[in-house]
Structures are given as structure tokens and as C-alpha cells.
């Protein structure tokens, strides 16, 4: 018989079965056989082991269709936990999730990027301890800490350059005594959406993230696509104007330079009437003369002010200030053009808008992106791209960071392979 259909990205039948139960919510053993392609004997062995380990429990019976009602299975939500930490110039967000990725507790602390890295790691470890203890979770049930930021890759944000060569993951692991899984904030946000069940069976999915910068996380059949250096999805550096303003990455006319929160704030502060109407302060993302900086949110404090002033521009637009509305609509059109490029290259099924910037301004950006994809997406005659705003846009990277731990420890992945049609069940990965 053929190999397992949904199981092929996973390293073991145990991981495959666990992932199917997670995605289904509740499912019978017969349902697992149909979903994975494993034999009934393999499913029985794996499920028994998962129940013995406390990861899965039986939860009632399905409605009878004439025979004996089937016993339903689901994850034991409180069996394991994970902590997610999102490090950003605007602040640090912590989230504690259960085995399903549901948030048990979360907290945000201001002022991250301007801190000394060693001092920040010590404070982060204390906050992780506090989060776990405050939730009444036993320490041995915590699988680890996911740590995400925009500091990775060859070009970290200017505001986080002093973190570039600091071994933050290793130091945090030493400080808190838990395994640490590092990653990219936009990819983490996408993984969090998938793990929580909000993505379903979508084959190619992306989460567009707007925070201090702009990026995207991409999942193909539930597997994050990282690229050669972990920088896949950097749509903030798609060029929209070859003669446009310089970007901190070294190019010109990038989406971030034209449409990012820092660009919106600079344009708003340059308009005296709007700056007054939005009550923009003297301290912010701009230099001493209010001109452009070398990147978004230089320094942790500046990054926080920039986020606050972007939110102030959004509030002014909601009050009917026409210049504020025009600035945001222009930004949304630029971002929509970049998103269309991503959708065309990856042939997306679903797009979720997330991050603190889109949490406050999603009402402007969502319709602009939908309109762009409905009218100009290359494959629109074959299928639409569903676009929606994340239900947890402000804290999505931290939640996704926790799910990185859950996935790496419970459902490790390998590249998908096509199994020969005549592969026998005995040659399939044995359950652990």
C-alpha cells in the first residue's frame, strides 16, 4: 500500500498522529487511519503510547451511525506548555501557551532594543519564571522557550544591531534552564496561526507582519519556508520605486522606506497641521530635526515612540483627519502591491495580516490588500486569495514562538518526500 499522506513531512508515526489529532481537535482511531494512511495496528500502538505519556486523552464517543460509537481522541491541553518571547525595539512580549497553542498567560514589557543584551537576557529569564509560576504551571511540564525577533540574518534592524553578534539564545537557555528555540518573528506569527487551527488545510499560506518593520512568514503544507539564511518573506524590501528614498538595507524604494510605520510617522510629522492634530510629540523616530533616521525605530525607546506615534496617526484618521487618512491609504496601497508580488510568486491560498502595526491599522490595510488581490492577482481566474486580519495580531509573534517549541519538540518535521506506491507498511517509520 502507499505511504501515509499527511504523515510524510514528519519524522515518526508518533509525530504524524499527534499532529493530525491537534489539527482535527477531536478524532477517532478510524479517522486517524483515514487521515494518515497507517494501519489500524500502528494507530492503536501509537495512540496507546500517547495516552500513556499524558499527551492524548479519550473524550467521549461520536454519534452512532449504526454500529458501536467510536471513541474520540483529543490532545490533553494541560499536558505540556511552552513559553514564547518576542524581542522587538518596541518592547518584549511573553506568552505561555498550552499544548494546543492556546494562550494561558501573556504580558508585554516596554523598552527592549536599547538595553544591554546581557541585562536584557537576565530580565527575560526572570520574566519567564514569573509567567510560569504565576500561571500555576509545573516547571517540568514546560517544554522550552521560543525566542523570536527581527535581529536575525545578515541585516538586523538598525535599532537592534548591538544584538547581532550576541549569543542571545544560548545565554537565555543558560539563564532560564530551559531549551530555547530561536526564530524569525514573521515566520513565528505564521506558524502560530497554523498551529492554532486558523489556517486549516491551506497548502500555501503567508502571514504579513507589520511591527517595527514589514515582513512575511510563509508555510507550505504546514512547513515553514525559511530560505537559505532564514530571511525568506522579506517583502518589506521589495522595491516599488527604483528612484525612491534610500532604505536602511542599502537599496532604494523599498516597501519599508515608502510605506512602513516609520515612513508614515515621518510624513505626518512633516505636516504641521497633522502633527498638531495627531498630537505627535517631539521625541520619536526622526532625528533632532525631524528628518529620517537610518532605519525603523533607532533605539528601543525610539521604536516605542514610533509605534505610539503611528497609532496616533491612525486615531487621527479615525476622527476624520483627511491628511492622516490619505497617508495611511497610500501606505496601504504600497503594501498591497508588495503583497500581490508575494501572492504571485508563491501562488497563495490564504493571507493573514498580523503584527502590532496591523492590529491598530488593519481597518485601512485589509480592504486595500483585498481589493488589490481581487483585481490584479495573476491566478485570480483559478482561485481567490482569502485575506483576513489575525485575531491576535498584537501578540502573534510571541504566541507563534511558543508554538515553535511545541512543533520542534512534539512534531519535528523533515522535507516532504514522495513515497513509492508499492512501499509496504513495514517499511514506514516505526512508532516510537
Features:
disordered C terminus, 432 residues, alpha/beta, disordered N terminus, five-stranded mixed beta sheet, single chain
Structure description:
The protein is an alpha/beta fold. 40% of the residues lie in helices and 18% in strands. It has 13 helices and 13 strands. The chain has a 5-stranded mixed beta sheet with strand order 6-5-4-7-8, with helices on both faces. It starts with 12 loop residues before the first helix and ends in a 22-residue tail after the last helix.
Which secondary structure elements does this structure contain, and how are they paired or packed?
Layout: H1 13-24, E1 27-28, H2 29-36, H3 40-52, E2 56-61, E3 71-75, E4 81-88, E5 91-98, E6 103-110, H4 117-134, E7 142-149, H5 168-176, E8 180-184, H6 185-195, E9 204-210, E10 214-220, E11 223-225, H7 255-259, H8 261-270, H9 272-277, H10 300-318, H11 322-346, E12 350-354, H12 356-376, E13 386-389, H13 396-410
Amino acid at each position: 500500500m502507499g505511504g501515509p499522506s499527511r504523515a510524510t513531512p514528519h519524522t515518526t508515526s508518533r509525530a504524524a498522529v499527534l499532529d493530525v489529532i491537534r489539527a482535527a481537535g477531536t478524532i477517532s482511531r478510524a479517522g486517524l487511519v483515514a487521515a494518515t494512511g497507517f494501519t489500524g495496528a500502528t494507530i492503536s500502538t501509537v495512540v496507546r503510547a500517547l495516552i500513556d505519556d499524558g499527551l492524548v486523552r479519550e473524550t467521549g464517543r461520536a454519534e452512532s451511525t449504526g454500529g458501536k460509537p467510536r471513541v474520540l481522541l483529543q490532545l490533553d491541553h494541560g499536558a505540556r506548555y511552552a513559553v514564547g518571547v518576542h524581542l522587538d525595539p518596541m518592547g518584549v512580549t511573553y506568552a505561555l501557551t498550552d499544548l494546543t497553542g492556546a494562550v494561558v498567560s501573556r504580558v508585554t514589557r516596554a523598552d527592549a532594543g536599547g538595553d544591554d543584551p546581557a541585562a536584557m537576557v537576565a530580565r527575560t529569564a526572570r520574566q519567564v519564571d514569573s509567567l510560569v509560576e504565576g500561571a500555576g504551571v509545573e516547571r517540568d511540564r514546560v517544554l522550552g522557550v521560543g525566542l523570536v525577533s527581527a535581529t536575525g540574518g545578515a541585516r538586523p534592524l538598525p535599532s537592534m544591531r548591538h544584538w547581532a553578534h550576541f549569543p542571545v539564545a544560548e545565554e537565555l537557555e543558560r539563564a532560564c534552564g530551559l531549551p530555547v528555540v530561536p526564530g524569525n518573528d514573521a515566520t513565528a506569527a505564521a506558524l502560530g496561526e497554523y498551529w492554532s487551527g486558523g489556517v486549516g488545510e491551506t497548502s500555501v499560506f503567508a502571514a504579513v507582519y507589520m511591527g517595527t518593520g514589514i515582513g512575511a512568514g510563509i508555510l507550505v503544507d504546514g512547513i515553514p519556508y525559511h530560505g537559505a539564511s532564514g530571511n525568506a518573506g522579506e517583502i518589506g524590501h521589495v522595491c516599488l520605486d527604483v528612484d525612491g528614498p534610500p532604505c536602511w538595507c542599502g537599496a532604494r524604494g523599498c516597501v519599508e522606506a515608502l510605506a512602513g510605520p516609520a515612513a508614515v510617522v515621518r510624513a505626518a510629522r512633516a505636516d504641521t497641521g497633522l502633527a498638531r492634530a495627531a498630537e505627535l510629540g517631539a521625541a520619536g523616530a526622526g532625528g533632532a530635526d525631524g528628518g529620517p533616521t537610518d532605519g525603523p525605530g533607532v533605539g528601543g525607546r525610539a521604536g516605542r515612540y514610533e509605534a505610539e506615534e503611528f497609532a496616533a496617526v491612525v486615531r487621527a484618521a479615525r476622527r476624520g483627519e483627511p491628511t492622516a487618512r490619505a497617508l495611511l491609504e497610500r501606505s496601504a496601497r504600497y503594501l498591497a502591491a508588495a503583497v500581490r508580488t508575494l501572492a504571485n510568486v508563491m501562488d497563495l491560498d490564504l493571507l493573514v495580516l498580523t503584527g502590532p502595526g496591523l492590529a491598530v491599522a488593519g481597518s485601512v490595510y485589509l480592504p486595500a490588500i483585498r481589493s488589490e488581490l481581487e483585481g490584479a492577482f495573476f491566478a485570480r481566474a483559478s482561485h481567490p486569495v482569502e485575506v483576513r486580519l489575525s485575531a491576535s495580531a498584537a501578540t502573534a509573534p510571541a504566541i507563534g514562538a511558543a508554538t515553535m517549541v511545541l512543533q520542534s519538540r512534539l512534531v519535528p518535521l523533515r522535507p516532504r518526500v514522495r513515497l513509492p506506491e508499492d512501499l509496504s507498511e513495514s517499511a514506514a517509520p516505526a512508532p516510537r
